[in-house]
From TrEMBL:
Region (Disordered): 1-24
UniProt keyword Cytoplasm, yes or no: no
InterPro entries: AAA+_ATPase (IPR003593), ABC_transporter-like_ATP-bd (IPR003439), ABC_transporter-like_CS (IPR017871), ABC_transpr_LolD-like (IPR015854), MacB-like_ATP-bd (IPR017911), P-loop_NTPase (IPR027417)
Organism ancestry: Bacteria, Bacillati, Actinomycetota, Actinomycetes, Micrococcales
Organism: Terrabacter tumescens
A Pfam family assignment: ABC_tran
Name of the protein described by the UniProt record: ABC transporter ATP-binding protein
UniProt cross-references to PROSITE patterns, sorted A to Z: ABC_TRANSPORTER_1, ABC_TRANSPORTER_2
GO molecular function, one term: ATP binding
Top-level taxonomic group: Bacteria
Residue ranges of domain ABC transporter in the record: 28-263
UniProt keyword annotations, A-Z: ATP-binding, Nucleotide-binding, Transport
Length: 264
C-alpha cells in the first residue's frame, strides 16, 4: 500500500499519507540562506556568518534532525526557517510566500497559525494548568475558550497525559511537561513543528518516549518536523539528518533515506 511505483510519476497515487510529500508547494524550502549577526550595514568587523549559504528542503510530512557541533548554526537555521529571525540573505519559501521578506507582523501570525514550537525546557506558563497551556495558542488566535479546551483535551490521552489536565507545569515530570509542550505545539494543526533540543533535559528512556510521541503526532496530523539535537538516538526517530558545520550543510540524507522511521 505504501509502495511507490516510480513509473507512475504523471499521476501520483491518491494515498493521503504520501500525497503531500509529492506536492512541492507544501514543502518548506530555504535557498542560499545567509545569516550574519550584529551587522546592519557592511561592516568589515563582522565575523564569519552564522549561516554561510544554506539550501534546505523540508518536504511536507517529513521529519528532519539537524545535528552538528556547538556553535555550528543549528539554532540560527531553525530560527530563520521558522520566521523568528530574518536572514541577512536568501529565501525561505512557505506556501507560495518568502518568509524572509514578510513584515514582523505577518511573521507573528504565520508562527501562530502555521508553525508549532517545542523548546528544550517546555516554556510552559507556570501559573496555568496543563490544559490551559495547550489551549492558549488557539485562544490567542480567536478560538472560543470551550472549543480550545475541547481540542486541547483531546490531545491528552494520545500523549499519555490523561488525568494530568489540571496539573500546573511545576507538578509534572520533565517528560510529562515536554509532552504538554508537544500538545501545545500541535494543537493548532501547524504545517511544521520546530523543536530545539526538545529532549536536551531528559534521560534516554524519557527522551525516546518524547520522540515517539512527537513523531507519531506529527505524522498523524501531517506536520513536518525539524528537530535540532546532539543525540544520535533522537535523530534516529527522524526520516533524515542534516549535518551542519560552520554555518553550512555538511551532509543531508533526507531524500536518500529509504525507510523512514526505521527506529520505530
Ligand atoms: N544573538 C546572537 N548574536 C550574535 N551571535 C550569535 C547570536 N546567536 C548565535 N550567534 C553566533 O552564531 C553562531 C551559531 O550559533 P547557534 O546558536 O546557531 O549555534 P548552535 O549550533 O545552535 O549551537 P549549540 O549546539 O551550542 O546550541 C555562533 O558562532 C554563535 O556565537
Ligand atoms: Mg543551539
Amino acid at each position: 500500500m505504501s509502495h511507490h511505483d516510480p513509473t507512475a510519476t504523471a499521476a501520483p497515487a491518491p494515498d493521503p499519507t504520501r500525497d503531500p510529500a509529492q506536492d512541492p508547494a507544501r514543502d518548506l524550502v530555504a535557498r542560499d540562506l545567509v545569516m550574519t549577526y550584529g551587522r546592519s550595514g557592511r561592516s568589515s568587523a563582522a565575523g564569519p556568518p552564522a549561516l554561510g549559504g544554506v539550501d534546505v528542503t523540508v518536504r511536507a510530512g517529513e521529519s528532519v534532525a539537524v545535528m552538528g557541533p556547538s556553535g555550528s548554526g543549528k539554532t540560527t537555521l531553525l530560527h530563520v526557517l521558522a520566521g523568528i529571525l530574518r536572514p541577512t540573505g536568501g529565501q525561505v519559501l512557505w506556501r507560495g510566500r518568502d518568509i524572509a521578506r514578510m513584515s514582523d507582523r505577518e511573521r507573528t501570525v504565520l508562527r501562530r497559525r502555521d508553525f508549532g514550537f517545542v523548546f528544550q525546557q517546555g516554556m510552559l506558563l507556570p501559573e496555568l494548568p496543563a490544559i490551559e497551556n495547550v489551549a492558549l495558542p488557539l485562544m490567542l488566535d480567536g478560538v472560543s475558550r470551550s472549543e480550545a479546551s475541547g481540542r486541547a483535551a483531546a490531545l491528552f490521552a494520545p500523549l499519555g497525559l490523561a488525568g494530568l489536565e489540571k496539573r500546573r507545569p511545576g507538578e509534572l515530570s520533565g517528560g510529562q511537561a515536554q509532552r504538554v509542550a508537544i500538545a501545545r505545539a500541535l494543537v493548532a494543526r501547524p504545517g511544521v513543528v520546530f523543536a530545539d533540543e526538545p529532549t536536551g533535559a531528559l534521560d534516554q528512556t524519557t527522551s525516546a518516549e518524547v520522540m515517539q510521541h512527537l513523531t507519531r503526532l506529527a505524522a498523524h496530523t501531517g506536520a513536518s518536523l525539524v528537530v535540532v539535537t546532539h543525540d544520535e538516538n533522537v535523530a534516529r526517530w527522524c526520516h533524515g539528518v542534516l549535518r551542519v558545520r560552520d554555518g553550512r550543510i555538511a551532509t543531508g540524507t533526507v531524500a536518500a533515506q529509504a525507510s523512514p522511521g526505521s527506529a520505530r
